[in-house]
Amino acid sequence: xxxxxxxNQRLKAAIHFTTGQICQTIAADCGSEFSRQTIAAIxxxxxxxxxxxxxxxxxxxxxxxRSTINVDDVKLVSRRSTALSTYIQQKSEELASAHQEQxxxxxxxxxxxxxxxxxxxxx
Length: 123
Fold this sequence. Notes:
One of its GO terms (molecular function) is chromatin binding. There is one protein chain. By secondary structure, the chain is mainly alpha-helical. The protein has two domains: 1-77, Histone, subunit A (Orthogonal Bundle); 84-123. Helix content is 85%, strand content 0%. The protein has helices at 2-30, 36-63, 71-77, 82-122. The model has no long low-confidence stretch (mean pLDDT 90).
């Protein structure tokens, strides 16, 4: 139990640090500042939302009788936010396209190797 608590504290600290960095960047771009309380509130909200997402993802996979979370689970969890859902759909299509291209390259190179091996064996 102590390990889980320590891990959660490290995760919260990392989220708080990253939130602070993002807020500093935005403040520099906009010429404004964020109070420490605001940064802490954003960090806590982010942590809680990520926790909700993680639990939802686990539930979706478990409901489908899987132990692995897949792209469809992520798409389902993002359904409440149109912008997030659109972004995830776009990235999913990009990844699928890249995966298909790699698959075709492997298939071509495999066929080329087999052809060369056949020619070498004939000589």
